[in-house]
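In response to reviewer comment 3 from the previous cycle, which asked for concrete evidence that the modeling workflow produces usable outputs, we include below a single protein chain processed end to end. The sequence was submitted unchanged, and the resulting structure tokens are shown without manual editing.
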Amino acid sequence: MASSRFEQPDTSAPGRPRRKVYIDTLGCQMNKNDSELMLGLLAPYGFDQTLDKTQADLVILNTCQIRANAEDKAFCTLQNWKALKHANPQVKIAMGGCVAQQVKDEVFDKVPLVDIVFGTQNIQDLPRLVEEAFRKTARFSAPKTARRHKVLAADKQKPQSTYAYFDHITPVRQSQVSAWITIIEGCDYFCTYCVVPYTRGRQISRPAASILEEVRQVEQQGYREITLLGQTVDSYGKDLAPGYGLAELLYDLHETCPGIDRIRFMTSHPLDLGESIIQAVADLPRVMEYIHVPMQSGSTAVLDRMRRGYSRQAYFELTDRIRQVVPGCGLSGDFIVGFPGETEAQFEETLSAVRRVGFDLANTAVYSARQQTPAGLWEGRGEGTVADDVKAERLQVLNDVVAQEAMRRNTVLVGQVVEVLVEGPSQRQRYQHRWRGRTRTNKVVNFDSSHPTADLTGQLLAVRIDQAGPFALQGHHNHEAPDRLEAPDYMFLAQLGQGGSAGPAPEGDRLLADPVLAT
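The workflow returned the following structure tokens.
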């Protein structure tokens, strides 16, 4: 791999003080993984992570721009950090991530106390940028808001994967159990509503050898689960040697890293989720029976305007095939309501699609215009704008239908014993001896344990499900007389078939009959 573009300082010299860095992460799993990478990059430069930003020498905000409220939250957070600068004028404040990539030096105008702005294409340069910012402080005596004190790096497109700039890097992971592993960056699809190609750049696959090396590292560190990440993770390998893609990577990981009990991947694009990937999920016992594959709308007309590249019917055929090859496979998706021009009839098609597929979970949002996208320009010109109150009403209706389908699927697991990977104590602190984990199909389980003192984090346990809600299951584990795991949770879910009632099919659209799946 290529070497880093900067020299690492000698931080082992006697008397060189360690410094503290605080990172606040907004947005998706990719951002979380990027933050872990930033911590790993800064560690050789003498920076240790702190969870108390008032004690930090360097404070970083890693931002998201997928919707307008995410960008607003980023700038609101920076404004709130002014108190840090007033309390300690030597602290450095940095903005990274997708907002920084798009807004660039305008950040300095909006929040003058920011010292460093670096985009998604320049994460590998962070140590150099930080050292430059600290040197500028020592060199100049002008007011801290002067532009000559500022450091900016927001290249349009880096020539290679972020991970190709280093011979070795160790992210500082925030979980003891599950590790994020980025395998592809960027997106080439340019959907009309989406900023990802502009903020993350074009698709760049990470070399397989680099991925395998990192996974072997986390295996040696005792991690039980990995999640392969990418904006379009199933596009992995298109820019590498022919014949090596996500499916081949899954087989290699499964064979070479037996200590990893669970392998997941996200997010998939329907156009790239081919037969070989679906078959890999079916063939490999340690690849989990769960796929996140955004649909975005249940209307073919809306999908065309979104430039998604597939129809409602094509999506149904894909999910039918997934659950034919992997019976009971957990499916989650993303949906946008109120896209420019969306009619009430087209919105009803989204509701029927949710019922037709039978999603285990779905992320939903009202359409948020992004100025640099085609749909953002349409919205700016008032072309097909959906009123805010209509968007809000549609979102509530969609959320209700998603919850109904999730509840229908989760109820099947009541009384069954499922395999749960324990992530840690339940987030509800009022419960003692209560733990939180996930099933193979990615369902959250909160459960009680009869063991009063043991730390169950990282263990694979057989948990009996007592209650079901739409977004989480409740259960119990008896360590003295553990229940026997009779079948993985996806096999119980396979009894449901594809989904619930889809209602009447739109004119010109054909709904496939639900196949009878093996149980």
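The radius of gyration is 24 Å. We consider this sufficient to address the reviewer's concern, and the full set will be provided in the supplementary archive.
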